[in-house]
Amino acid sequence: MQSNRTLLFAVCAAALLVLAGILYWRGYRQAYPYGPRPAALPIIVNALRAYAADHHQSFPNTNWDPYQSLEVLYPNYISGKYLAGLSRDPSRTELALRNGEHLAPENCSLVYFPGLFATDDQRIAVVWESQTGIAFNGRSHPGRAVGLISSEVKQVSDAEWERFLSSQASLRQSALHSRTNSRTTKDQVVQ
User: Fold this and answer.
1) Is 158 among the domain residues?
2) Which of 23, 32, 120, 153 has its CA 20 to 30 A from that of 6?
3) What's the pLDDT tens digit per position in 8-51?
């Protein structure tokens, strides 16, 4: 009788452990739909700023191509796994870069704007995650994770997204315009 109880207890305990594991995994996948990315977006923004510090305050700009521009960060400023962004497979991106392949929408979920400087308006977003519903660390969160020139990382709600995009286009245009005017003025003084 005692051995039957022990066996029943062991079977129930094992079933509870399996059930708890399934529930944990399901909750984990809901919390991190693409897996956890501890501090991924802040790390990306800091890599961009480190690059700018070494390149006369200019963020990477290779032929105005966002993916080619981000590639110059690898491997000296950041590991390839971060260049996957928040919703692509980090090991696949790392392997692709190691094998000489290029970043593309299939292996990089980041939206990046080449041609900016660390000295531009600090409210300008230099990079953000293309997928909505993911926070800076890969956790499920409404809105989009955005990295500003100032190094601030914030979440922009879906309701504010269109207004944010419009504001960002205006801020980027002002930054580029002021640099063009500054160069024109300097050229006029030299002549």
Assistant:
1) yes
2) 23
3) 676 666 655 655 555 454 555 678 899 999 999 999 999 999 99
